[in-house]
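Reviewers of the previous submission asked for a worked example of the structure-prediction workflow described in the proposal, so we include one complete record here. The input consisted solely of the amino acid sequence. No template or homolog information was supplied to the procedure at any stage.
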Amino acid sequence: MVQNLPFENRPLIEYLPNVLRDVQEFKVLTDVEEYEITKLWEYLKNALDDQFILSLTEYGLMRWEKILKIIPKFGSTMEERRTIILTRLKAQFPFRLHEMLNELCGPDNFKIELDAKHYTIRVRMELRDGIKADPVAHLLRRICPANLICEVTHDTLVSASIHYIGAILESKSYTFNVKKIYL
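From that input alone, the workflow returned the following structure tokens.
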């Protein structure tokens, strides 16, 4: 996010020469215009924030979702929506799965297992703030070959998305909580 823009918090009266600052008409005029200028700075700051995925405002999120044809889930936070947009954009370019997961989940917060015999790829994610299994599962569905079964599991909430494409046209998704049992 853009933090400090030049002159952002400076009152308009300070732009006037010292001779005019004491004139009552100019005091009233600058007081009235202060609200408009403040709004203008806010719009400028939002426009700059919307230039980068990680600092998108609500307006920027809606624009990217429209461009990428994403329908956000009800109750999704802005951070979750940013992650989904970033994931969708990353899936459009030539990729290296390990690098993409490093950026999404953080370095060494996941494990990738490829079972070539059974045409299965498994990604196990470690618990981390703001990272959910759904964006990673969506990424795998978009970039992995159609004959590969993709499974994504999360440390506390296991959300396995299994997709069979090819001879069998079927899609299953299971979500359940994992409880640790101490003996």
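The helical segments are 18-21, 24-49, 58-68, 78-90, 97-105, 133-143. We consider this example representative of the routine output the project will generate in years two and three.
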